[in-house]
Amino acid sequence: MNLAIAKWTLGPLLLVQGWRVRRVTPVLPEPAGPREGVAGEGAPLRLLVVGDSAGAGVGAALQDEALAGRIVARLRDRFRVEWRVVARTGATTASTIRHLERIAPFATDAVVTSLGVNDVTGEVGVERFLRRQGKLHALLRERFGARLILASGLPPMHHFPALPQPLRWYLGARARELDRALAGSLAGGHGAEHLPFEGEVDAARMAADGFHPGPPIYDAWGAAAAKRIGAAFAGA
User: Fold this and answer.
1) Burial label, 5 (beta-carbon count in 10 A; 0-12, 13-18, 19+)
2) Which tens digits make up the pLDDT trace of 80-126?
3) pTM for the complete prediction?
4) Which domains does the chain have, with CATH numbers?
């Protein structure tokens, strides 16, 4: 079914289901632990994880089990990693741009972004999403000196246990639409690359809310990101 037609015909039901999901889904805290630090020995590498609740690590108990922690764990044997997390629950691409424009700039080498789910639920269209992603990447390069940007792919929302049908199907289709467009827009490189989603999505691997990653997904995600970063800075 065409998404525009689906939104028109299923709109009232989707709104009711969305309201109910927000009402009954438990609100999980962001994980405990520092959001910046230094780990490892070797060539210096400055890492930034930026974005939404998944970037902040919701679904993990500690930052060590979250995205930044899993990346650092795999890079610390080869690099002296100076890492930082600038991510907040509910963040969209637009709100992340505004936040990064307000804070004091700092230097970074590699950035992993976690954005898109809240753009999906906020009904951000493909063209607007790509414009905002492009603006974000330019900001990270120009204001923070990022040499490598890994734009994480959107997760398969059509597998999220917290979402009932047909809302699960609709949001999943929207997520795939934005993710395909993002991957296509980054095919030429220019300092930003698409990082496809890694890991199985089911109740056993996700957080208790059925909406956020659990530690196994963060581990697979972190491994994929670390592999790309390690290869990019191997000669540093």
Assistant:
1) exposed
2) 999 999 999 999 999 999 999 999 999 999 999 999 999 999 999 99
3) 0.94
4) 43-232 (3.40.50.1110)
